[in-house]
Design brief:
Elements (H helix, E strand, L loop, with lengths): L7 E6 L4 E6 L14 E3 L4 E12 L6 H17 L10 E2 L6 E10 L12 E5 L5 E7 H12 L2 E2 L4 E4 L1 E5 L5 E7 L7 H13 L4 E7 L12 H7 L9 H13 L3 E8 L14 E2 L24 E2 L4 H17 L4 E5 L5 H5 L2 H8 L4 H18 L3 E5 L1 H4 L15 E5 L3 H10 L3 E4 L2 H4 L36 H6 L8 H4 L2 E8 L9 H5 L2 H11 L7
Parallel strand pairs: 4-5, 4-6, 6-8, 12-13, 12-21, 13-14, 14-17, 17-18, 18-19, 19-20, 20-21
Antiparallel strand pairs: 1-2, 3-11, 4-10, 7-8, 7-11, 9-10, 15-16
Length: 532
């Protein structure tokens, strides 16, 4: 049965923001988010936390672990969280206050890559020091987050006599943020990464560029941002990127860059109009059918696969992005390639008139870029469209599964099944469940579908992916539904996505949280009570 969760509210401080996160009141009198896999507290009791409490890592030095310990120690000593529903337990002062949390890590060298071991064991006895053991630094960070949630009150008290073993069900648990359609200052991104971490998620998928703006300052191609951004104060410099990446490492969060190509590249035309087709044209010509549009929303432009200069520019961008981001995953986009945009180019018209196809165009593009990305020791992530689009797609032979991951966003379980049954690893971001921008109206203002005096629901209220995705919708979604065991093993995890046509820094936190917290628990420890 589904866990009857969200019966009360846990207030989690990220150190940067305060999140109201719904919690379960089922099995214990104290709540940890996300719910641990194993939580044993046979005789609920608590004692005082010593005013001189310390977190110690005897003879172990790691820059990111040290940063996390300092952060959590400050949080524990200053937050003085008061639970909305006080725990029912035996509070005693007859035992000495807890003085120390000893942290022990087996492997200090394991990098923050996909599938790194994030398990931990936390023991808080009634007497003596608490002990947190983990295989890696990143598992220790998850355990520190759990420990911080077991301390509350003023004076500070801590749950004792408990044992936790914990580890995630899925290795990839993330949030996607689009910073092209609207710009987000670095501080907003850092705050979001901090919140990702306290929810024990581990991926910030950064959709950096799109047709609307190119805010990333690429050292070898500075004109792309100088001319394609919204302005000189709306750029991400290499210094900014390094700051974000390092902040991610300090919080156990991978920063996965996405440079969406060959579609969604209209902003590139400000610097290189000769490599972009249908740039600056009206996205849906008057009187034309939807299938003859040039883009799916305002902001036209796609890279021209037949122009050699396209690859000269793009490879410099790819190389610089791979240098700026140490993350082994490189997201190359490849979604929503619109036939009409490519057909607007004379060279492509000639190619098609001589027997070529649009799918062959995409294959030319993939064959010219995919091997280069792989040569930089990267695994390439594409949106599902690259093999599943109805009109423009490449054969699976063009994308070896060992170097390719596909991210699904259409048709729910059906497309996930198609991807894994073809042998590919999958990241699930189903728009029907995980798109956080849905239900807030459409991007286009002058839209005739609103001129309707008899119904207020035409066109799903003007939002293509309406309705709004509630926490219940997100929490209940089973990303491996209908898959065999072997197929389910190819599902790496999931991401909720905030596309920014209708979002900006003003609404960022409210759009993402606490709904993303629902996915965080589902992917960490599941959404079903196996004992009920």
């Amino acid at each position: 049965m589904l866990l009857p969760f969200f019966n009360s509210i846990l207030i989690i401080s990220t150190g940067l923001a305060v999140l109201s996160v719904p919690i379960s009141t089922v099995e214990s009198t104290i709540q940890v988010w996300p719910k641990p896999r194993t939580f044993s507290w046979p005789q609920p009791q608590a004692t005082l936390l010593s005013p001189t409490f310390t977190i110690s890592t005897p003879n172990q030095i790691h820059i990111h672990l040290s940063s996390a310990i300092k952060r959590y120690l400050n949080l524990i000593q200053t937050e003085h969280h008061i639970p909305l529903v006080p725990p029912t337990l035996n509070f005693t002062t007859s035992t000495p206050p807890l003085q120390t949390l000893l942290v022990s890590v087996s492997d200090l060298t394991a990098p923050l890559h996909h599938n790194v071991n994030e398990s931990y064991t936390l023991t808080i006895p009634t007497w003596g020091p608490a002990k947190l053991t983990a295989e890696t630094v990143w598992g220790a960070m998850r355990g520190l987050e759990t420990f911080s949630q077991l301390v509350w009150g003023d004076p500070l008290r801590v749950a004792v006599g408990l044992y936790i073993w914990d580890a995630p069900l899925f290795a990839h648990r993330g949030v996607l943020l689009d910073t092209s359609r609207n710009y987000y200052p670095v501080e907003d991104i850092l705050r979001t990464i901090g919140a990702i971490s306290v929810n024990k998620m581990n991926v910030f998928h950064w959709h950096i560029t799109d047709s609307h703006s190119f805010p990333l300052l690429v050292p070898s191609e500075p004109d792309l941002a100088a001319k394609g951004s919204y302005g000189p104060d709306m750029l991400y410099t290499p210094y900014d990127v390094n700051r974000i990446v390092q902040f991610g490492l300090e919080h156990g969060v991978r920063v996965v860059p996405e440079i969406d190509t060959p579609a969604h590249t209209g902003s590139w035309a400000e610097a290189y109009p000769d490599i972009i087709t249908c740039a600056n044209m009206f996205w849906w010509p008057a009187g034309s059918k939807w299938e003859d549009r040039l883009a799916s929303e305002p902001g036209t432009g796609q890279l021209n696969p037949l122009n050699p200069k396209t690859y000269q520019v793009l490879k410099r961008v790819i190389n610089d992005v791979a240098t700026l981001f140490p993350e082994p995953f490189y997201h190359a986009g490849a979604d929503e390639i619109i036939p009409g945009c490519w057909k607007a180019d004379p060279a492509i018209q000639s190619f098609l008139s001589n027997g070529g196809t649009l799918s062959q165009l995409l294959e030319i593009f993939v064959n010219s870029t995919f091997p280069y990305i792989v040569s930089l020791n990267r695994t390439v992530v594409y949106w599902e469209d690259v093999i599943l689009d109805a009109n423009i797609k490449v054969p699976t032979t063009a994308l070896p599964p060992e170097h390719t991951i596909l991210q699904t966003w259409n048709n729910g379980h059906n497309n996930t099944k198609k991807i894994v049954s073809s042998g590919y690893r999958a990241i699930v971001s189903s728009a029907d469940f995980y798109y956080l921008d849905c239900g807030h109206g459409g991007f286009v203002g002058n839209d005739s579908q609103y001129d309707n005096q008899t119904s207020g629901t035409s066109g799903n209220g003007g939002s293509w992916c309406a309705p709004f995705k509630t926490w219940q919708t997100i929490y209940d979604y089973d990303i491996t539904y209908g898959l065999s065991k072997e197929e389910a093993n190819l599902v790496l995890g999931g991401e909720v996505a905030l596309w920014s046509e209708q979002a900006d820094p003003t609404v960022l936190d409210a759009r993402i949280w606490p709904r993303a917290s629902a996915m965080a628990e589902t992917l960490w420890s599941g959404n079903r009570d196996e004992t009920a």
